[in-house]
Protein 1
Amino acid sequence: MQNIKKDYPPGDFGVWIIIYIELLTFGLFFLGYIYSRRSDVELFNASQLLLDTRAGFINTLILITSSYFVVKAVQAIKTLDFKKANEKAQRWLLGAIGLGGVFLIIKMSEFVAKYQDGINLSTNKFFMFYFLLTMFHFMHVMLGMIILFNLYQKTKIGGYTAKDHRGLESGASYWHMVDLLWIVLFPLIYIIR
Amino acid sequence: MYRFTKIWLLLISLTIFAFGIGWFKIASSFLIGLLLITTFAKGSLVIEYFMGLNQVQNRYRFIPTIWLGTVISLIALGYYL
């Protein structure tokens, strides 16, 4: 059987322009981090030891699982009958939003712990990158959750069908991008030394 | 749909591997290389299957993959050189 490929990525094309721009922006930050590290490897390694690797690890599991829930929501709309599809999608989206919330709580507790230890943006170059990158990503998680909540609201009124679910795919793509960025960010900031 | 569950489990397994390197502080040059390869693999799985770009024309599929490959390669260069 011939596998016919679609002409355009899932969702609105506009969201993909945003995704490409975000990837480029974060990519530059990642490279800024790794090349700044070269100028003072010992400082970066010593500072990295002050991070909570477990929190970073748990947050990675959370975002990956949340992304998986969003995939399940999209699959439900694509494959199940109308009423059941929206009900299932609702549950998956609610789960994804909940996990996003847990991510934010864990990340916030990391920020608070650092501030209580007297560590902030101006402590040193490592922490400048740490706060800049993770706070910037944090804002993207918040925006992603707002988008997911809007998708959830629409599934409550049966707003998506197997033929028309472009809005759902757009939001899902954005959420997967947030996950993709964290997949690179976690080893870069917490592990590589 | 079962395929997505397998991909999710694979992503979880690779994340546990990454955490192991950090937790046990065994970040040798070899393991960091392996970590970067698995990070590329994880990112590719998200791009291909979660984002669904394996079902679209290659020109759109390859943009995020090239981004990921370039970023990981430059991180590797910054780390090793």
Protein 2
Amino acid sequence: MAAPFAGRSFLGTVALVFLAIAILSAVDMFLAGLERKETRIEAAHLFAQGRDLMQRGKKTEAIERIQDALASDRGNHDYLRTLAQAQFEAGKTADAESTIEELLQTDSTDGLATLIMGRILAKEGQFPEAISYFRRAIYGHWNGDAAGNRLRARFELIDLLARRNSKEELLAELLPVQDQAPRDLNTQIRLGRLFLLAGSAGRAAAVFRGVLRNVPANADAYAGLGEAEFARGDYRAAQRDFQSALRLAPVDQTTRQRLDVCNELLMLDPTVRGLGPAERFHRSLKLLDLTLDQTRPCIGQNPSFQLQQFFDQAGKTLEARVSAAHQSEASEANLDLAEQLWQARRQECTPPPATDSPLALVLARLAQ
Amino acid sequence: MDSNQRSSWAAKARRYLERFRQNEDQLSLVLSLIIGGLVGLVVVAFILLTGRLAARMYPAGGSGWRRVLVPVLGSLGTGYLLWRYFPFARGSGIPQTKFALFIDDGRILFRTVLGKFFCCSASLASGIALGREGPSVQVGAGIASVIARNLGLSPRQVKALVPAGCAAALAAAFNTPIAAVMFSLEEIMGDLHASVLGSVVISSATSWMVLHLVLGDDPLFHVAAYKAVHPAEFLVYAVLGVVGGLGSVCFVKLLLGLRAWFMRLPKTTAWFQPVVGGLTVGLMGYFVPEVLGVGYNHVEKVLNGDIVLKVVVLLAVLKIVATAVCYASGNAGGIFGPALFIGAMMGATVGGVAHSLFPHYTAGAGAYALVGMGTAFAGIVRTPLTSVFMIFEITRDYTIIVPLMISNMIAYYISYKLQPESIYDALAQQEGVRLPHAHSRSRAERIEVRQVMRSAPVVLSPDLPIAVVLDQTNDSAFDAWPVADEQGLLGMVRSSELEQAADDGASNQSVGELLREASWSGQTVVGDPPHVYPDHSLSVALERMGNTGLNVLPVVSRANVRHLIGMVALDDVLDAYGVARRPGPKGRKR
């Protein structure tokens, strides 16, 4: 058996080893601290470069820089968020999704991360999931200006719901925003239009009126108010508001078209207050004539027996002479016939009639 | 407390300490813990120091001339130091550790540890394209050796602690404690069943804990979860195994060829030779900075699919050349890191091509880069199990195991066929040292008893009289005989016992009685007689023959130790090893 090595004293060696452990622990801690500090500085430098490139529109280079920054300072949430944002803006949605997933694994309540995820999913057409992420963003954790960021997230959700024409959900999101939203002109007009989209014409009108109280000469507010009044069926008020808008912005073609519709509707509507019996009779005939014109081409050569009867009756009515004394009764009969024809058209014709034409609107009003 | 009490306590402490020193198991356990902790701290310092120095020597975005000058100056400085003061700190550190373990009773000088630590730090920080893990292994082994020798332990104990130092170093360097244990057993010891397993595991785990305490829970590489896209992908992994195997062979042959060339140069140029490596890597780094240093950050990029195919191919080729030249020219640094780098690039190349051809059936290049790392490790370092565990620990992803095993085994097989000797054995041979390796041991272990056993020529009934038995066994070379009844084997009766009984006038006594008497007197074992199993190696048979003093042993079934299958004789064993037979049967005294 080989002889033992000639060692130092057992206790002395043990003491030296523990001394070495103590010294090395201190050295390691110092070096680790130094490395952490230096890599963070380096990462921050790279991140700043990445953000700069991002602002200059150089998304690909920006992504590379931010990834380098992340390699040095792993798990930095700011870097991850910005990287995901850059990837999303560069059209790399899969990469952005993966980055956000990494971030959400460590903090599932991160407001910006969930918001970006919502944007990604909305872009991919996964709307229910996107809406869910937007809601998580609204109630999520934000580092600074939480209220403002939550509001912005809610507006993004509102825009998505508006695009999807989800009226009820849209209104549900708009109601909490109404009091929190900034009072600036653009936001208020946007809010008013969104209420219109959500089918809440009354709230839209209130918003536009509020704007006009502060800024009386705002064409957009008048146009919006006109739309709101139109939606509520107050065509006269709508006409007035559209006219006001056009006085302020004469070249606004959309408002002009809406005014034309409004004018036509008001010329056609037999229920407008203040009409004499003759005018009311005249309008009822015109309405019947227009309904007949709308219905006949779509029915074709073989109308049903009932419809044929309506056609015959309408033809006779239009050719008949009615004395002034019977014009009121005749008006009612004409309007009834027009309504019946319209109902028959809706049942037998495809495609269905346009619901926003003056004729359709007037007949809808008569049916109420 | 009076002086008597004090001296009594001191005496007790001394006695306790002495008892502790004498208890090898306890001492080994405690030393494994201490070595694990200390080596972990040293390796963490080594990693941090190298990283911080590198950040200062060639910072990212630095000028091109700096990338040429720094490696040249670094290799010049460390080359001189290695030549003048630390001649045993050159190269990787793995062959040197094995030299120490198998040739020098585990002796590694403290000076070598210091030299390895500082020269490697400077060398790697200057951009030399070598790795830090091999040197860490030598540093770890050296620390274990220094502590054990200073404690006055025996060479056997020192040699048992050296693998613990290796495992601790590798666990901290790669952040892979299981792979570190496997490597210590598979490569350093060359024996997966080595008795040092306990101390190796303890030191590896301790070192890993130290690493986590200081640097946190970051894995070596941050990679996306591995995904197998389609079963047909396994074919691509097989192709990766072939490419990895061929690439590994190219790398190893280039390195060995260059090393042989450098060794033929005049000895007086030894201090200057590393500059060739420094200049080569510097010139490459001027155009392609990714070649410089360990390059793990670029490996991570490839693993995440962030480098384009053309660059990946270029990096694979350049790294093979740069590492081979740097190592062969005598710089300090290992080849583990470069093996992973080269493997990742080869994997990404195969994966990139496959993905462009079959995008719906294959994962991205990153997944292949991951498997490629293990493939190159298996092909170059020739430790297939270690490489599987290492990649598994790096990814912490179980699903990667199957493709990894397919690819690794193919690479290992190709590498073994085209370059039978592993790189460390070949490097040792270039130094004039023949290290034992696992294959030589396994060849010795390969012959089993079943291959040489014969049927028992005579099985004695316990009722037979001794005189009859002596007649039956007179002309045999065996010196013992199996005695069996209908229940099976009862024991072995020696010729000498039979002869002694006959001389004592007990020729009419039965063999069974003789066996029982021998059992009472402790001469022959009944119950469980000496035996071997058919699957035992011949070395086990030889050992048992030596222990029992018999030249023949019964071969019994593992299912029933009394079921005699055959006999194995010393002559048969010697025949199997190609050793000439002993002289024929001797005449027996009656």
